[in-house]
Amino acid sequence: MSVNNMDELKRENLCLHQQIAKLTSELAEAEKALKWHKVELAKQKPYIKDLEAQEKKERYENKALRSELEKLPCLGNGNFYGNSEGNVIAQKALGLKPSDVYGLINKALKDNKDGK
Fold it and tell me: Is the pLDDT of residue 7 over 80?
């Protein structure tokens, strides 16, 4: 093996050792950051559980309210949507479009006629 080849191998070896040292340092920093994030996440878990419980409670309450609100568009019309000003306001509040309401009314009338 020539001297030039030996010098080149030594340079490559040195370069590889430097890269290994750099990557080892970066890995240590990443592991340190990961540990910090895990600690911070653990600190947030009680708040997350509280928020999840609050969200569950609000979903239940919203479902109960919507169930009651869905009765308003039908007031005075049994189980059918009405066309009074109050019925229409309630339909809009529930996010129903006139085309939705008329489609539902026509379906209900057809089903009633067909004996369904």
Answer: yes
Tokens of 84: 């009074």
d(CA 69, CA 53): 24
Buried-state track 27-64, b at ≥16 Cβ within 10 A, e below 16: eeeeeeeeeeeeeeeeeeeeeeeeeeeeeeeeeeeeee
Q: Which of 90, 92, 94, 85 is nearest to 73 (CA)?
A: 90
Residue 99 tokens read as: 């085309």
pTM above the 0.70 mark? no
The larger pLDDT score, comparing residue 112 to residue 74, is at 74
- Predicted confidence band of residue 5 (pLDDT cuts 50, 70, 90): confident
Contact 108, 97 (CB under 8 A): no
